[in-house]
Amino acid sequence: MEAATMAWTAAVAGVGLVYWFVWVMGSAEVKGKRAVDLKMGSINRDNVKDKYTQYWSFFRRPKETATDEASAEKVPAFVDTFYNLVTDIYEWGWGQSFHFSPSLPGRSHRDATRVHEERVADLLKAKPGHRLLDVGCGVGGPMRAIAAHSGSNVVGITINEYQVNRARSHNRKAGLDSRCEVVCGNFMSMPFDDASFDGAYSIEATCHAPRLQDVYGEVFRVLKPGGLYVSYEWVTTALYRAEDPDHVEAIHGIERGDALPGLRRQDEIASIAKEVGFEVVQELDLALPPALPWWTRLKMGRLAYWRNSLVVRVLTILRVAPKGVVEVHEMLYETAQHLTRGGETGIFTPMHMVLLRKPSTAAAAESK
Ligand SMILES: C=C(CC[C@@H](C)[C@H]1CC[C@H]2C3=CC[C@H]4[C@H](C)[C@@H](O)CC[C@]4(C)[C@H]3CC[C@]12C)C(C)C
Ligand SMILES: C[S@@+](CC[C@H](N)C(=O)[O-])C[C@H]1O[C@@H](n2cnc3c(N)ncnc32)[C@H](O)[C@@H]1O
Predict the structure, then answer these.
(1) How many helical (H) and strand (E) elements, i.e. helices and strands, does the chain have?
(2) d(CA 336, ligand 1 centre) in Å
(3) Per-residue pLDDT tens for 247-288?
(4) In this entry, which stretches build a coiled coil (predicted)?
(5) Phi-psi category of 324—alpha, beta or left, where left has phi over 0 and alpha has psi -120 to 50?
(6) Class of 47-360 per CATH?
(7) pLDDT of 366 over the 80 cut
(8) Which residue's CA is the closest to the ligand 1 atom numbered 21?
(9) Who contacts 97 (Cβ-Cβ below 8 Å, separation ≥6)?
(10) Ligand 2 centroid vs 255 CA: distance in angstroms?
């Protein structure tokens, strides 16, 4: 073959390969968010790398961010930065629901996710006409599943403006915008009236609060008397040993890579709920057998991670993705290893479920 023909063949093959990686394979999990759309939230593309560096140095010592008062106050702003950095990558590689679910035999991840979300609606006994609060709603995957399953109206709150816009756009596309609303705000001081919701839920979100009392107290305030609240909490389990360096490494890795100001222990959750006035109706780690592992979805994707990593590198070189995306993607890859380790050793669960009730009368609440 002549040199010119060889060069042409190589060029065409190269372009074909990039096209295949980016446009065909680039939409890793759910069609809709493609690799070429990785914007990093509302951060100006020239600032992505700096914002990532600031985030990383803030969460380097996660436990201190919760215990030191001045740092604790800064947590919501850094959580906001975190979601600017990761929201597009999450949507691209995971979907519109930013949480884990127990695997279901013979069923897709999408089905398992929906079942885990519909469980919330069932626990809340949600029905048409109810007004539910989604505490830390992300881009609204759970909100839409719960509204569709129960017929209720849902109001979501998230600290991240970019997620508000994404969620509203998804709600419109799903034809659910008349029943699903999203507001930007801090779940530790919410812009809602007292006793204005029939039920509330939080899915893998309250772990971002330095003090759980601050979120639970707010949910208690906005719930009607008798109203139910379900939360899926990220916690360390009784198997966690602070003197085991492997355990410490996994838990620190989870905290640093997920913007967490220190994970709480499983046995702390119910007492915090009671402290703010809730009755504990049920408490259960949904990750325990017979539930199948939630972390297999992370493990089975090694080939996909490798491909995604290549995609973000190519897009950064082509200047389609902003500088810094490679670093954020790398951080998430490492976080996935720590989460998997946490799941396999059983020292961590992302789905410690509590079902709480605001007492029906003030007298009952005071006697707690
Ligand atoms: C509840 C929270 C988020 C939980 C999960 C939705 C995310 C935790 C780790 C994330 C991911 C890790 C690896 C990424 C991979 C390298 C990339 O190619 C595609 C996206 C990932 C799979 C990404 C997806 C979302 C997570 C699983 C926390 C923040 C409280
Ligand atoms: C891991 S995501 C889960 C989102 C959603 N529950 C889901 O399952 O798809 C955590 C969410 O909590 C929100 N969040 C974290 N801290 C917050 C705060 N202080 N106030 C409001 N929202 C917050 C984030 O913005 C994000 O939307």
Answers:
(1) 14, 8
(2) 7
(3) 999 999 999 999 999 999 999 999 999 999 999 999 999 999
(4) none
(5) left
(6) alpha beta
(7) no
(8) 93
(9) 113, 117, 138, 141, 142, 145, 203
(10) 15
